[in-house]
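Worked example (supplementary).
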Amino acid sequence: DAGITQSPRHKVTETGTPVTLRCHQTENHRYMYWYRQDPGHGLRLIHYSYGVKDTDKGEVSDGYSVSRSKTEDFLLTLESATSSQTSVYFCAIRRDSSRNQPQHFGDGTRLSIL
Amino acid sequence: QKEVEQDPGPLSVPEGAIVSLNCTYSNSAFQYFMWYRQYSRKGPELLMYTYSSGNKEDGRFTAQVDKSSKYISLFIRDSQPSDSATYLCAMRGRSNDYKLSFGAGTTVTVRA
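After joint prediction of all chains, the assembly is encoded as:
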């Protein structure tokens, strides 16, 4: 168990509304990541964080913003949701115990934009 | 062309068979290679983690990396119905951000 909790687990909302997804970790690791998973594309990185207030873009960052005001929480915001952002969103952490630790994932948030 | 290519399957095998999965990649900077298993409606779970070329064995699972051919494989021996899942390959280079590149995943069904 990687100690990652994602909330909400499911959400249905309408086009144009703001949406915020939360990732909470219990182990205080520096690196946290947000991915989206779509059929045929695998997991694609949206944004990642390497510390409080330190974030950077991934390959599919357009339309998304992130914030990290506490080590344990990493928030993903869709400022104005579009149907193309319907997806399953996963948060991941990388344990700090050594340089070469792999990433561990939460159980995801299923987001539907109608 | 995608950086990591993985045949999506689906792959269906009888219980006890050997499952063979593979990925090819184009970025010669990749040094670390992972296989994740993902059950339906769950997050990816790390299965195998290897560095550079060679074989690594863990119980019924064997991971192979051939950097000269840019090709990685995962073998599952004596497959069980509980091995039915989607298998994702992932890899990264040496950079400090630890960003991963994933294959699209192969869906495997082991028939009892």
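Two points are worth noting when inspecting this output. Chain A has a mean pLDDT of 93. Residues 48 and 56 of chain A are 6 Å apart (CA to CA).
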